[in-house]
């Protein structure tokens, strides 16, 4: 499968001795438009998105520095289209 692999995703140094492992993160998003069930609510939309669903800690290293990835992030929104 494209995009799926084992071993190093990238190397963290010029000699390719420091391996940044392959990481799989899961994101999920759901939206609801109540106007389909209730015509009086036409135009409204609610959305909930979660990034890094499992709250996996990711670290990427490069040239002697390591960076922590974003933990779980939850974003909700409500909007109305005129």
From TrEMBL:
Presence of the UniProt keyword Membrane in the record: yes
Protein keywords: Cell outer membrane, Membrane, Receptor
A cellular-component GO term for this protein: cell outer membrane
Top-rank taxon: Bacteria
Subcellular location: Cell outer membrane
Main subcellular location of this protein, as a coarse class: membrane
Annotated protein name in UniProt: TonB-dependent receptor
């Amino acid at each position: 499968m494209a995009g799926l692999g084992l071993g190093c995703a990238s190397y963290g140094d010029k000699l390719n001795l420091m391996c940044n492992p392959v990481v799989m993160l899961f994101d999920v998003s759901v939206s609801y438009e109540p106007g389909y069930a209730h015509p009086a609510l036409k135009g409204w939309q609610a959305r909930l998105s979660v990034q890094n669903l499992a709250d996996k800690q990711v670290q990427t290293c490069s040239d002697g520095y390591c960076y922590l990835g974003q933990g779980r992030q939850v974003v909700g929104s409500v909007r109305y289209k005129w």
